[in-house]
Amino acid sequence: MKNSRIVFGIVALFSILNSQFSIGYAQYVPSAENLKARSEFQDKKLGIFLHWGVYAMMGQGEWVMNNRNINYEEYAKMPAGFYPAKYDAEEWVRAFSDAGVKYITITSRHHDGFSMFNSKASEGYNIVEATPFKRDVIKELADACAKYGIMLNFYYSHLDWHRLDYPLGSTGKQLGRPTNQQDWNSYYNFMNAQLTELLTQYGPIGAIWFDGVWDHAGDAVPFNWQLEEQYALIHRLQPACLVGNNHHKNLNPGEDIQIFERDLPGENTAGFSGGMQVSNEVPLESCQTMSDSWGFNITDTHYKSTKELIQMLVHAAGLNANLLLNIGPQSDGQLPATALSRLKEIGEWTSQYGETIYGTRGGLVTPRDWGVTTLKGNKLYVHILKWQDKGLFLPVTDHKLSNAKLFKDGTPLKVVKSKEGYLLELPNIPSDIDTVVEITVD
Ligand code: GLC
After folding, report:
1. The domain containing residue 433 runs over which residues?
2. DSSP 335
3. How far apart are CA 57 and CA 83, in angstroms?
4. Are residues 281 and 377 in the same domain?
5. Atom of ligand 1 nearest to the CA of 157
6. Among 48, 246, 286, which is best to mutate for testing ligand 1, by the most ligand atoms less than 8 A from CB?
7. Pocket test for ligand 1, best of 209, 210, 211, 264 (most atoms within 8 A of CB)
8. What whole-number distance in Å separates Cα of residue 14 and Cα of residue 10?
9. Is residue 365 assigned to a domain?
10. Predicted confidence (pLDDT) per residue in 323-373, tens digit
11. Residue 267 domain-assigned?
């Protein structure tokens, strides 16, 4: 009896150790480095998303292979013509840095399966070995980011329209791929080998941003992506590297960021975030396109206005979220001119008002129709984005507010206290992109 209890105890202990360290997480406990990285990530507020691949040559977005049913062997001929002669990583990073961007998330490999980095694991299907350009554009970007103090993150697709070992899901079915070579173990090992390359070749990486598990969302038997072991690998290689997954669902163990596609947390206008509960445990990030497309799209001139983009950023900050704003670089290696001009204007705003969003957290008043509040130390920033009156009421009862002034020129504002809060008296009806009032909180 006693012996069998001891044996049971030993077996139980082994299975706990096993699930904790080799199979995945029994329960995910983020490391101290990881928690610190989460908080630093939240301080950054503005990131640039880059969807760049050989698909840029066709100018129809990153889904062109699937959308035009391009045979996988024909598509694989594209890299031979990819020569982004005007690519200058430092020029990109300088433009981002001037705009007040604090991090970049670039597609290391998108659904088309082509690796934009030096990847031995890709068996030749990568920018260094399959294009006449031969340069590791990601290495150049990593070097430029290090120089400018910008964090670098990698987008990584879980689904693949090129490899024959990827078990076909709901997309990429008309690409002529034989289905008799599908082999999950082989594909999983390939992904983990690539993640190891990404996390050992380019210095510290801020986050791995996964996308594509929804390819198997419709499977009759739930598909096992073995995410926990994969996340554990990432955390083992770089404990401070944050894991995010654009699966449009609630968080899984091992994920350090919650992602919202084309919507702010709590909204669902684009239809991706239905049923998602906003986490209050991990950093939030909302990704959005500057135009309508992720990958370069030559006919998409539908860019959001600078005002819309800045207000989106401020909204995100008020909701405690970062904004990851997408640009699709061209096949010549340049950023589209309209994107550059938007960046320049965003930079004019962040150089004046950045202080009121960077390093802040959502403020004392939750988002309202008129705008949002952010808080840093004892400074409350009231961001008035749309308001028709010269008075604005702040329902704050548990803090003392004093010394209200317009952030832009220090004009003191009168504040009238009542039982329900404070009435701010503004000099005019607000008409700026964001009229910021700074208030001291006690
Ligand atoms: C979607 C698309 C993908 C894009 C991503 C960005 O999941 O499949 O092309 O990269 O959204 O959020």
Report:
1. 371-441
2. P
3. 10
4. no
5. 10
6. 246
7. 211
8. 6
9. no
10. 999 999 999 999 999 999 999 999 999 999 999 999 999 999 999 999 999
11. yes
